[in-house]
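Internal tracking record. Fields below are filled automatically when a chain is submitted to the structure queue. Please do not edit lines marked as system-generated. If the sequence contains nonstandard residues, flag them in the REMARKS field before resubmitting.
Queue: standard
Priority: normal
Entity type: single polypeptide chain
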Amino acid sequence: MKSLLTLLALFSLSSFARSKAETNFSTGVIDYGIVVEDIEKSVEFYKKIGLVELTSFGVPGKLAGDAGLTDYKDLQVVMMTATGSENDTKVKLMQLPGSPQKQDQSFIDSTYGMSYQTLFVKDINATVKMLEENRIPIMAKGPVDLTGAGFEGVYLILVRDPDQNIVEFVGPRP
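SYSTEM-GENERATED OUTPUT FOLLOWS
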């Protein structure tokens, strides 16, 4: 059986080849933003799990409002990536004044919208060690062997960020 990473890579390549001529996208990378309650706490968490801070900046309320990002509130943004490269997918952590309504993040099926993010790792054992060293609890029974789901040699662990968003790590166990 092929590993999850191999299947994802093949799917990505076939999708890219099939849609390259049909799209106006300049890259296959899709960045995403996470509105957080405490940006310092969130940056610290994401650094602990291995992400690298690229840059940080503020967006003035007028610009944020005119663009439709906020209701004319200032926005603080910290951009992070897996390797520190500008070419990586960027996680944009954003904090703004006030307290947005929190969603139910108990499970991935608890609410509509983005429910989790997946980080692919080279060694799930090294990830477990890193999480333990940083006192980041692993949810449920991890690492879970995904062989029964058709992904031989691939394991899964889940953790929560400071705002209770689920972060999924997927990779082999050498």
